Amino acid sequence: MSATSTNVNDDVLKATKTYRQQRRHVIALYLLALLVMMVLFGWLLSEQYRQEITAAESRITARANVVNEWAKGVFAQSGQALFGLTELLALQGMTDSEHMEELQRSLENLTQYMPMIDEIVIIDAEGRLLASGSGKWNTNFNIRATTFFSDFEEGREQEKITPLNLSTSDQRFYLYHGRRFESSHGDFAGVVISRVLPQVFADSLEQMSVYDGESIALVDSDLKFIARYPIPEASFSIGTTIDSPETVEWLTRGESTWSINFNSPIDGRKRLFRVLRVGEYPMLAVVGVDLHELLSAWRQRALILMLVTAVIALLGAWGVRHYLNRLALAHQLRQRIEEREQARAEAQIAAAAFQTHLGILITDPRGTILKVNETFSRITGYSEAEIVGNNPRMFSSGLQNATFYRRLWKRVIKTGNWEGEIWNQRKNGELFPEWLTISAVYSDEGTLTHYVATMSDISERKAAEQEIHQLAFYDTLTGLANRRLFMDRMGTALKELQRHQRCGALLFIDIDNFKQINDTLGHYAGDQVLQSVARRMGQMLRDTDTLARLGSDEFAVLIEGVDSNDAQTTRLVERIAYKLLATLNEPITLAEESIMVTGSIGITIMASNEYGVDDYLQQVDMALFQAKSNGRHGLCFFDPSMQAALLAHVKLESDLRQAQASQQWQLYYQPQVDHYGTITGVEALLRWHHPERGMVSPGDFIPLLESNELINDVGEWVLEDACYQLARWAQHPRLSQLTISVNISPLQFRDEQFLARVEGVFARTQAPLQQLKLEVTESLFVEARDDARDKMLALKARGVRFSLDDFGTGYSSLAYLAQLPLDQLKIDQSFVQQVLESQANAAIVESTIVLAESLNLEVIAEGVETKAQQAWLLAHDCHAYQGYLFGRPVTAAAIERLIIGD
Length: 902
Ligand SMILES: Nc1nc2c(ncn2[C@@H]2O[C@H](COP(=O)(O)O[C@H]3[C@@H](O)[C@H](n4cnc5c(=O)[nH]c(N)nc54)O[C@@H]3COP(=O)(O)O)[C@@H](O)[C@H]2O)c(=O)[nH]1
Hints:
Helices cover about 50% and strands about 25% of the residues. The chain is of the alpha+beta class. Among the domains are: about 355-465, PAS domain (Beta-Lactamase, 2-Layer Sandwich), CATH 3.30.450; about 475-640, 2-Layer Sandwich (Alpha-Beta Plaits); about 670-900, TIM Barrel. Helix 14 crosses helix 15 (about 565-585) and helix 19 (about 710-730) packs parallel to helix 21 (about 755-765). Ligand LFPHGCPZ binds next to strand 25, helix 18 and strand 29.
């Protein structure tokens, strides 16, 4: 996913989070406001409720007090009547029979004028009825046995009112108000009793005005119903006991006043009651107010408040909902904008991705092409219009078979993906390799919707890989395997040989004197020779053989699995090797001329398990070395004795490096004479005094010095030693005319530092340079002729002379030689020594002498061993000689002795 798409997603997530937070805050705020409002309203209602109850309590308390006072008044009137009667009885003693009539009338009057009194009776000290207001009483009536009477009789009570009592005579309830009276002597004389009808209270209560829901009732101290307004139903009559647990509990507590909430036992309505004891009388005034009625206004207000709350809550909810909807809408809008933004960004990315360097092809599930990008068109050469609607089979190259495609699609169906290399065909028919990726695309529901193929043209990469492979493993000049590939093949071959118990062979082929071809004919010709040789050998060998060029003119052949028999393999390989030699020996036509080359072949048979690749390489190297040492143009099989020779060679090289440091070098000087036998000069010849080997010939080590560039240091030492010798001889009159010829290797001469080194020697030794002769060979002028000539001219300017050594053995152009600042030609000893035996050699020597004369050069013959040779040379006008005939190379002291004598 791109950075843009990621940012958009982050924004959407952030916006969603913010929206949810806002939503939560709004809802929480609304609920909080609702709660606060409800708490406020609740508090208001409870406060009003409390006030209503308090007001009602005050009201019913006041009412109860009124009832209380009124009830007390009723009993006070009865008490007044009884008091007056007892006073009368006490004053007049009216209890005897003569006063009975008068008494009877008083009682009647009292009963008549005091409506609350139903009857008044007088009881004597014995409890017998003395008189009654109605006169209807039974004369046998006696209350002596009652507690009511005994309380008076025994003086415990002066005046007393009973709770409701059921009259046995008429089965009605009455209240009895009694008062004790005494005789004139102060003795207990009896009791006057007024019988009060409870109905009196009911009638009075009826006169009272009560509020709606209010009730006023009187009950006796035993909680028996006396009177009530509003009048209860008939079922609740006077004397009915109201025995609710709450009232009983209050009675036992003995409190004078009490408020309580409970369901009225009379009408079942819940009331708030105020209960008061009516003075000391056995009566309770109970004023109640119907809570339902009482709280109707409060309920209305509560209802209104609740309605208001509900309305506010609903309005608030509506507002909140509206706000949330707006928030949601805004959020959705933003989300949609962001989604659209994201979709746009993704579309841009998809469009950008589609226009990639990769070719993209999209098909439907049936493989019908729906879309391709520009890269795809560019790679295949088809326009989109030519592709869309077709099947990708149109690009098939035919290089992959049906099984390949079956496997490919099986994998796509199984895993959803396939990738690999495939060859397809462009519109122009060209086949090309591509790296193809096929992906199945599924919908969210898991239905296959498309296939998307991406491809990159890898033809350039493959070509580059091929080129890299070619460069890495093949020789650029000949196209043969290079050393690296050859080593690899050898490793593989060796394992195979060992596994199958078969023999193989390794051949190293070296073109003889190839350096000379290079040096004389130039590198281009050398290259042509190498290519020709490679082609011919390749044609001759079988496909299973590996032919490689390991470097310069070194070729190698690996022959695998020849035979299980060692000897058989050797014979077969020998035949192959001879054929190779014969092939090499055929003339090679170059641009202007045709040349012949020969080769040397070293062979080793690979048969044993005990050797590895390096061992066999070493063996074949030694065999080749031996083949060359044997005189070239031949072959040589490796045998273990070669190893010792090679070791010796290695040791020699190591010793050579030590020689300089250990001052094992010494210069010998071989005389050069004129036709009188007078020594005119000497050739300085290097000798190596090895502590173990003794005197080692330069022929054995000069090539080694040249091969590892030690020649520059050793050559400088030689020149310096010879120059010191010249400087010393210059001091001697009989030696001062001697020349010293110093051999300069072509490698030494070509070295960039050569002139500087020589100048250094001259400066150090202060040698007489006109006595110094530098011997160079023809090979020096094959390559970089001008450089060699320039150096010679520079030295010539210093007085140094030049002698051309080994003349006749090389390929020098005589015309060029004429341009060189030479002073002398030195006829090679190989011609001189055969001058009498070989007419050809004689002819060469003769022509050399003539040539030298024509070029105005001195001529000297080397290798003169016999007087006959000297005579022939003299006869042919050669007047300078060097050879064993005149003296072998000896020390400088020996030369001095030869000239000066002892
Ligand atoms: N670059 C240098 N090359 C050097 C130097 N010293 C010697 N050499 C070259 O080594 C080759 C072998 O030299 P050497 O073994 O010293 O042989 C020389 C003579 O001893 C030998 N010679 C001379 N006269 C005769 C003879 O009558 N018969 C015969 N069989 N051999 C004889 O010839 C060698 C001299 O040859 P040349 O140099 O071509 O004049 C040899 O190629 C030396 O050049 C050195 O310091 N540097």
